[in-house]
Amino acid sequence: MNDSHHSAPPDAGSAVPGPAMVEAFAHAAGSIARQVPGGASGFKGVLLHIHVAPEASFEMEELAEAECVAGRGIVGDRYYEGTGTYSPKPDTREVTLIEQEALDALARNDPPLQGGAIALAPGDHRRNLTVRGVPLNHLVGRRFRVGDVILRGGRLNFPCKYLEELLGLPVYLPLYNRSGLNCGIERGGVIRPGDAIELLDDDGA
């Protein structure tokens, strides 16, 4: 991985068209989940870390704050720029999240799906936002707030062999079904570590 050739991101208001991405609730998983009552409620989570990478395979950079642009992504991230590994395949990946609890479980080898404990730093998993106290698997097809930004849960993220190759660690199986959530941005704004995360109803402002 190389982080020595960073280019300045374009201004968020730039006329440069964004990459083609499926709108979160238009994705099959999100659209079906929206019609099903339920999902987690009453939780109060928190944003722990924000990471972006300007291009595919570049090292993730931690940010003290990030600008989220509705329908596009996080300014400076490879999926905002259209330079991500999977950018040629339109999908819901404006913002990706992962639970700190999943990383803690890997560090305990819980359940024992690999030869031993795997310690992943917040920048290693290559998701944009690391969160705590947020039941991401239950937020497919749901609207929720991170600080003043509103996200739409599109589909669960699945691990890939590409991540194993980048890290040199057997993370594919232990991350399966707890690899995070791909989201669209409904209302943009600036987010910072420490921001509260909570569920919204469909009519929430």
Short characterization:
The protein has a single domain, classed as M1 Pyruvate Kinase, Domain 3. Helix content is 15%, strand content 25%. The chain starts with 27 loop residues before the first helix and ends in a 5-residue tail after the last strand.
State the main characteristics:
alpha+beta; M1 Pyruvate Kinase, Domain 3; disordered N terminus; 25% strand; 205 residues; 15% helix; three-stranded antiparallel sheet; seven-stranded mixed β-barrel
Account of the 3D structure:
With 205 residues, the chain is α+β, with helices and mostly antiparallel strands. The chain has one domain: PK beta-barrel domain-like (M1 Pyruvate Kinase, Domain 3). It is 15% helix and 25% strand. It has five helices and eleven strands, in the order H-E-E-E-E-H-E-H-E-E-E-H-H-E-E-E. It has helices at 28-34, 78-81, 100-107, 161-167, 172-175; strands at residues 45-52, 61-62, 66-69, 73-74, 95-99, 129-132, 143-146, 149-156, 181-187, 189-191, 196-200. The strands form two sheets. Strands 1-6-5-9-8-7-11 form a seven-stranded mixed beta barrel. Strands 4-3-10 form a three-stranded antiparallel β-sheet, with no helix packed on it. Strand 5, helix 3 and strand 6 (129-132) form a beta-alpha-beta unit. The longest helix has 8 residues, at 100-107. The protein is globular. The N and C termini lie far apart (40 Å). 39% of the residues are buried. Mean pLDDT is 83; it is low at 1-14.
